[in-house]
Structures are given as structure tokens and as C-alpha cells.
Amino acid sequence: MAYAEGTEVTPERSQQEIAAVIRKYGADGFVSGWQGNRAMVEFFADARRVRFLLTLPDDPKAYAKTPGGRFRDERGQRTALEAEIRRRWRALALVIKAKLEVVQSGITTFETEFMANIVMPDGRTVAEHVVPVIKESYDRGQVSGRLLAIEASL
């Protein structure tokens, strides 16, 4: 069973919860928005800009069948699509809250916990910079020189 499956909490309520949580943990700013089927939450904390992108399903036909294999009518498909959107927003709210809590508790650091989502000066996240290099390393069977250059600069 997926986290928050069956939730009735609206996406708007999850967004409000995210804003309240990051404010509680000392964030300096917050923005959210959407374009097409992608939503974005961005906040400023610990002198860093952090961005989460959330891809949302947008095709009710992808929910034509129930998990048990029964067919849904158009209304059932739309209902299942909306339920999945609510579930994903709840999952995002959970992960942001959990990350902030472990940082505040001293279990890890802000940079370590949010590394992939920290926005660099060029507007891209650390993940957007590093994930292709990690793939390259695995494809080649050895650590990429680009990753080694980062390590050497430390």
C-alpha cells in the first residue's frame, strides 16, 4: 500500500501544510506553482534555495483499471486520478517535514539532507548536475573524472 493512499486531504491543504512546516523550521521564503502536470515547491532556508518538482498524473485513462483488474468508468478514472494527485502531495509534505525534522534533531545536516534539491547559482539543482555524471560512471564501470574533480576540489 502506498503512503497516504485513500487520503482526502486536498493538494491545496498539503501545500499550506508544507508552507507552515518550512516556516516552523525557520525558512526565509516559500513559493509554489505549477505548469502543465508539473508542480514546484521552492523555499529558502539555511542560506540555500531548495526546489522540489512534483510530476502529477494527468491522464485519467491511466486509471482505467483498479488494482484488482476491474475496469472503471470515466467518472471512476477521474476519481482515481484525483486520488493519486492528493496522495503525491501528501508524500511530498511528509518528505519535506521529515527532512527538516532530522536536520533540527542533529541527525544529519541541511546540506546532506537536501543536497539533491539545492538550487545552484545557474538555476539547476545539484541532482540535475550530478545524476548524469553518476549514470556515466555506472555506464563506464568506473568513477567519472567529473566526480573525481569534485572530490579533488574538496
Overview of the structural elements:
It contains five helices and three strands. Strand 1 and strand 2 form a beta hairpin. The chain has a three-stranded antiparallel beta sheet with strand order 1-2-3, with helices on one face. It folds into two domains: 109 residues, no CATH class; 34 residues, no CATH class. By secondary structure, the chain is of the alpha+beta class. It is globular and about 60 Å long. Helix 1 packs parallel to helix 2.
Name a few traits of the molecule:
154 residues, alpha+beta, three-stranded antiparallel sheet, 5 helices, 3 strands
Biggest β-sheet description? 3 strands, antiparallel
* Global shape: globular
Report the helical percentage.
40-55%
Strands across the major sheet, in which order?
1-2-3
What fraction of residues sit in β-strands?
5-15%
How many domain modules?
2
Low-confidence stretches: none
Tally the helices: what do you get? Answer: 5
Per DSSP E runs of 2 or more residues, the count of β-strands stands at: 3
Mean pLDDT: 92
- In whole angstroms, the N-to-C terminal distance is 42 Å
Radius of gyration: 19 Å
The helix/strand class is alpha+beta
Order of helices and strands: HEEEHHHH
